[in-house]
Amino acid sequence: MLRVGAAQTFIADQVETNTETVLLMAENAARMGVQLLVFPEMCLNGYHPKTLTQQDIDDQLKKAVDKISQKAAELEIGLIVGRAVFADSKLYNAATVILPDKTSYTYYKNNLTSAEEKYFTPGTKQLTFTYQGRRFGVIICRDQNYPELARQSCENADALFILSAHYYKPAEARWKIDKNRALPIARAVENHCYVFLANAVGSHIGMISLGNSLIADPEGVLVALADETSETIISCDI
């Protein structure tokens, strides 16, 4: 049996602040017996242009990942964090899997929003990884709209992780709650695996994200559902 969790967090404009949130959440999760924890999309740096265009942003993110890797090894917990990646003069919306033995994997979001397309380059590959004898898939936010990508990402997997940051204007944030809850549940049923959705809360870049991080089991049953405003951890044993 493996205890797996999703962290729901506020995303600040400062990498250092977000890194401290990840480290604190990792410690809290470890105390809960969680062995693998997923965080929201872009949780290390957010989307603010002033943050992403800082001259030393790449160095800040590398230092942050190093700190998180050290904490993962110390706590013997696997962590999946959303962040920006700069590679080959391109910017990617990425998810990095950091395991206690210092093994890491990085996935680039395949399906960008129209706003993201102005700045980010889409990824073209899927990611699955093995941890503690279990197999997991990873996708990011809008990727959840594409059943085939989900199927490829969690083929023969025990669970699928979805890193999200559902930032919208207030009215849109409210009416999209049901859709953003239904899609992860559908992906769970279609692929007969657990789905762990980690979403952001609070305001950022003039928009809001209303949480509702969730865990759905292979039958589509909601095992856990977070609220709209709290930084919290939800978990279950698989």
Structure description:
The protein has 238 residues and is of the alpha/beta class. It has one domain (3-237): Carbon-nitrogen hydrolase (Nitrilase/N-carbamoyl-D-aminoacid amidohydrolase, 4-Layer Sandwich). The protein has six helices and 14 strands. The strands form two sheets. Strands 1, 2, 3, 4, 5, 10, 11 and 14 form an eight-stranded mixed sheet that branches. It has a six-stranded mixed sheet with strand order 6-7-8-9-12-13, covered by helices on one side.
Q: Please indicate the count of domains.
A: 1
Give the overall shape.
globular
Work out the number of β strands. 14
Number of helices: 6
CATH class: Alpha Beta
CATH architecture: 4-Layer Sandwich
Q: Would you give the CATH topology?
A: Nitrilase/N-carbamoyl-D-aminoacid amidohydrolase
Using the CA coordinates, give the radius of gyration.
Answer: 16 Å
β-sheet strand percentage: 25-35%
Q: Which residues form runs of ≥5 with pLDDT under 50? A: none
Helix content: 25-40%
CATH superfamily: Carbon-nitrogen hydrolase
What is the structural class? alpha/beta
Terminal CA distance: 6 Å
Overall mean confidence score, pLDDT: 97
Order of helices and strands: EHEHHEEEEEHEHHEEEEEE
Short description:
Helix content is 29%, strand content 33%. The protein has helices at 15-31, 49-52, 57-75, 147-153, 170-175, 177-191; strands spanning 3-10, 36-38, 78-87, 90-98, 104-108, 128-131, 134-140, 159-163, 194-198, 200-204, 207-210, 214-216, 222-225, 232-237.
